[in-house]
């Protein structure tokens, strides 16, 4: 951790990237209220800038609410390639909607094209948008899979998400190191066992 992040003077989302829909002053008032409610003095020096920082942080962490992930899947290439495409280890950070605490990990996305392929970075873009919303890991997994089915008309899609949830590691049952794995298998990955084991081997093969 550098000194900047200790004092809170870290790079923030630039003002022109705060979505218009986000009401920063309203978040600031709410954060002040939370601080007072837990027994803090929101007017002490160290906390004076906190509501403003938290408001901008929420604007950043939840900006995916105001973006359409489908926008990243509109540009595709017509290809005869009909074998599996797999993008592994796409890092993501999201916020659990039950506690507003972060969960983060890796997404692995495999699909079998049906005449259309997308740029590989576009899959990471989709993960970026969907993760920057109040989320539940299970739903996020389904959402990514359904987007690929709907927009690319793929023959099959496999989405596997692995994440650690800070609501499990820093509070509640406090189980540091536990990893939550979710998967959504659609099309041939659901109906065909060998396709499913192929994608799981490619995801996990040389790691486990
Ligand atoms: Zn939680």
Helix-residue proportion: 25-40%
Number of domains: 2
CATH architecture of the largest domain: 2-Layer Sandwich
Main sheet: strand order = 5-2-3-6-7
Helix/sheet category: alpha+beta
Which class of the largest domain in CATH terms?
Alpha Beta
Mean pLDDT reading:
92
Poorly predicted parts: none
* CATH topology category name of the largest domain: GTP Cyclohydrolase I, domain 2
Morphology: elongated
Tell me about this structure.
27% of the residues are buried. The chain has 8 helices and 7 strands, in the order H-H-H-E-E-E-E-H-E-H-E-H-E-H-H. The chain has a 5-stranded mixed beta sheet with strand order 5-2-3-6-7, with helices on both faces. It is elongated. With 208 residues, it is an alpha+beta fold. The protein has 2 domains: 3-61, GTP cyclohydrolase I, N-terminal domain (GTP Cyclohydrolase I, Chain A, domain 1); 70-204, GTP cyclohydrolase I, C-terminal domain/NADPH-dependent 7-cyano-7-deazaguanine reductase, N-terminal domain (GTP Cyclohydrolase I, domain 2). The two termini are 31 Å apart. 38% of the residues lie in helices and 24% in strands. Strand 2 (85-96) and strand 3 form a beta hairpin. Zinc ion (ZN) binds next to loops.
Topology of this structure?
Blueprint: H1 3-7, H2 24-37, H3 50-61, E1 76-78, E2 85-96, E3 101-112, E4 116-118, H4 120-131, E5 134-135, H5 137-152, E6 156-165, H6 166-169, E7 180-187, H7 188-191, H8 193-204
Parallel strand pairs: 2-5
Antiparallel strand pairs: 1-4, 2-3, 3-6, 6-7
Helix pairs in contact: 2-3
